[in-house]
Amino acid sequence: MSTKTDAHASNKLDTLKWLLVILLLGGSIVSFHYFEEHSLLLRVISLLLVIGIAAWVASTTEKGRSTLYFLKESHLEVLRVVWPTRQETVQMTGVVLLMVVLLALIIWTVDSILLWLVRLFTGQGG
Predict the structure, then answer these.
(1) Do 56 and 40 have their domain in common?
(2) Helix 40-59 vs helix 62-80: angle between axes, to the nearest 10 degrees?
(3) pTM of the model
(4) Shared-domain flag, residues 22 and 55
(5) According to the model, what pLDDT value does residue 53 have?
(6) Which residues of 76-103 are buried (b: 16+ CB within 10 A; e: fewer)?
(7) How many domains would you assign to the chain?
(8) What is the pLDDT of residues 78-102, one digit of tens each?
């Protein structure tokens, strides 16, 4: 019985935290435009500060913690990827460019032949 009560209280607290996050973000955007006569630097700093506070509040919720865990795991996965060397990248880029030019020439040739045939059959070719 107590675990259901704890889960329900935690769910309510998370809902209140998300409401606070939405209010913080909305308020910061409104205040950014409301205080337009003040320095842009101060408005941007205050906006970033409030966004940071909202992110911290969001990270204390269950979904926020799972999102942070996902981001950490994603970063570790990126570190495990074997990236190609510069030489491999340049060579593959060259191959791709060569194939694009080659296919463009083939398509241009086929188009020219078809155009010649259409002109021949319609009697418009000289």
Answers:
(1) yes
(2) 100
(3) 0.58
(4) yes
(5) 96
(6) eeeeeeeeeeeeeeeeeeeeeeeeeeee
(7) 2
(8) 999 999 999 999 999 999 999 999 9
